[in-house]
């Protein structure tokens, strides 16, 4: 800066001759009165701007998810796999046998029902009381009487 007085005052940040301005600023005091630069001092995070999404509470991603969490699948030995396959095959065969038995029982019940219905119809036919009505008598009957004859 020039030593000649000017009408404009020099900005506060441009004072190169001031030794206090070139020194690092002191750390602010914490609640317990210490300056915070002791053994337990934390490294402060760099100041970030507001994210475009507006979610200021979210931390920026420092590592990829695939690197952060390693998921390891426990491999089963071959003998265990073979044994499990045998067990599932046994379970399947037992289930199939039970299904066959159930289906056979259903089919038998259906056949019994059909036989019972057939037998019932035959018994009703056998038990019917019929009358022989001549054609001349039917011609003389009224309409309602003819309908009754047809139903019976």
UniProtKB/TrEMBL annotation:
Region of interest called Disordered, as start-end residue ranges on this chain: 1-66
Cellular compartments annotated: Chromosome; Nucleus, Nucleolus
Lineage: Eukaryota, Fungi, Fungi incertae sedis, Chytridiomycota, Chytridiomycota incertae sedis
Function: Required for proper chromosome segregation during mitosis and error-free mitotic progression.
Coiled-coil positions: 95-131
Family stated for the protein in its record: Belongs to the CGR1 family.
Main location: nucleus
Listed GO biological process terms: rRNA processing
InterPro entries per record: CCDC86, Cgr1-like
One Pfam entry name: Cgr1
Keyword Membrane: no
Comp. bias (Low complexity): 7-30
Protein name, entry field: Coiled-coil domain-containing protein 86
Annotated source species: Gonapodya prolifera (strain JEL478)
The organism's place on the tree of life at top rank: Eukaryota
Annotated Gene Ontology cellular component terms: chromosome; nucleolus
Keyword line: Chromosome, Citrullination, Coiled coil, Nucleus, Phosphoprotein, Ribosome biogenesis, rRNA processing
């Amino acid at each position: 800066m020039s030593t000649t007085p000017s009408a404009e005052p020099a900005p506060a940040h441009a004072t190169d001759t001031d030794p206090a301005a070139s020194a690092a600023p002191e750390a602010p005091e914490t609640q317990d009165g210490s300056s915070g630069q002791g053994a337990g001092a934390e490294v402060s995070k760099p100041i970030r701007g507001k994210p475009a999404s507006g979610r200021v509470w979210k931390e920026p991603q420092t590592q990829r998810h695939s690197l952060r969490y390693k998921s390891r699948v426990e491999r089963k030995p071959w003998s265990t796999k073979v044994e499990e396959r045998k067990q599932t095959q046994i379970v399947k065969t037992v289930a199939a046998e039970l299904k066959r038995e159930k289906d056979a029982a259903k089919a038998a019940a259906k056949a019994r029902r059909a036989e019972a219905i057939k037998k019932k119809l035959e018994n009703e036919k056998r038990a019917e009381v019929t009358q022989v009505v001549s054609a001349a008598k039917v011609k003389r009957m009224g309409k309602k009487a003819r309908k009754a004859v047809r139903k019976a």
